Amino acid sequence: MEQKINGPHFSSWESAVQWLRNQPDRQDLVRSAYYDDPLSEAVDRYYRSEEWAEISLMLPASRGQALDVGAGRGIASYALAREGFKVTALEPDDSQVVGANAIRAMAEETGVDIEVIQDFSEKLPFADHQFDVVFARAVLHHTRDLQAACAEFFRVLKPGGRLIAVREHVISRDEDLQAFLDIHPLHKLYGGENAFRLAQYESAIRKAGFLLDRVSSPLESPVNYFPYTLRSLQSEIAIKVSRNLPVLRTLLEHLLRQPFIWAMALPLLTRLDRRPGRLYSFLATRPA
Q: What's the Cα-to-Cα distance from 41 to each of 99, 116, 210, 237, rounded to whole Å?
């Protein structure tokens, strides 16, 4: 499902993204990563996406303070603000394209209220029990110390607060990490990618003190399988299983699109899915 990019190696993520945006054959990837401009349109597209619709169901009913960790260009910061939260975006990179200054400009243009703090997640510059939600999109696998980051998320959450960590890369074995890096579509441009075993994420979250409410597997949630839709995901699976034999592919597509058959097939497909770097998401609560 991933495509490699062969290109130069850059010293900053901003330079890598700018190069990528200038490649005519990579515009689908740019758009699916929300690296396209104008940023005001990209953040609104994320807010209206199937992914965010699913995430919004994980948010607490009462709106309070939300921390968007590793906020990047601010797509989730914008969505959280539109949901009614008082948002703090934590982003160490000051880039005007993919970092803190991009968020500041976007917030001013769109009129949403987002406080931007430039710092790292392993030692958060916030008081204990400050936030109702800590949101992290594709952040945990980038942390230099997974356990320390989860402990900090726990510390700054209020009792009863929620950690929502989505789109985290998972490997089955430590030796699969290099295979994942080799197929990651952007890693060769700048580096910095990583992945952990599922048990490592779960252990770090639980050891921090959280109750782990939900673990979403790669094929069960649009949060994880985006930019696929459920229909295009089922088609991709049918292609791979049928080895692209037209009659068998058509039959499998028809069967997988039956809701009860998809529900029955999902546990088996999840067990068989050993792709290095597949995506999982986590919902956890700090006990009241």
A: 17, 20, 35, 31
